[in-house]
Design brief:
With about 260 residues, the chain is α/β, with parallel strands linked by helices. The protein is about 35% helix and about 15% strand. The chain has one domain (about 5-264): Rossmann fold. It has nine helices and eight strands. Strands 4-5-3-2-1-6-7-8 form an eight-stranded mixed β-sheet, sandwiched between helices. Helix 3 (about 45-55) packs across helix 5 and helix 7 crosses helix 8.
Length: about 260
Amino acid sequence: MLILLIRVLCIGNSFSWDAVEQELVPLCDAKGVQVEVHNLYYGGCSLEQHAAFLEADSAVYSHRVCTNHRRVAKGRESGIPHLQTRIVKDTVSLREALRDGTYDVISLQQASHFSGLRNTYEPWLDMLVDTVRAYQPQAKIYWMQTWAYSQDATHPAYPSYHNSQAEMWDSIQACTRLIKLPVIPCGAAIQYGRETKLGDTFCRDGYHLNYTYGRYTAACVWYEILTGKNVRHNKYKNPEMSTKQRRLTQKSAHRAVKEYKKKG
């Protein structure tokens, strides 16, 4: 039996695509949790760019809706071989998405390449938070923490961190501590996963998560935040994952959520 619907909006980019569009709904479905996850996607979008799009009311986003719930907006449907329906609506503005019903949870995030650079956060984050609260006063607003790049990443922004995963992760943590919002610690979960026998193998190209246990780890963090349930009791796994990979990634996600709840 499915419990009350949880409706989510991510104001994001490809990192929210990794985190919520593939594995989150199946994880929720496995425990009878009804979800409707809206990812407002624009590739590589920074806080400053989101704010500029908001100010101009630019209809530039792809609005992806992933759900195990039937009542979703009409749009272009594409199949994902998991327990969910996925709808894609193109050329949507941020204001349009914020007017699209009532959300329980709304997340914001920084573009990965700016995630450890303090001067890229304000005044744009405050502007976005104020607008979200004006349109959705009942929603709980979260900060989705992104992850550091792989040690061998070739991303053009990696030199900003001296091509050092440790330096990038330390910088992300420092910026996270300045955020006055509750945190969805996907970055911490990935870093903890790298400390396991899985090693530094969570990314498929040096920065985006791989399609199996990489994306699964980030989704496990989201699952715990949304449901309050311990993901280690969830038996769902990506069909391409091993039981060992499920155990290690769930443990990493649970550790991250538990630690950030203590800090918050």
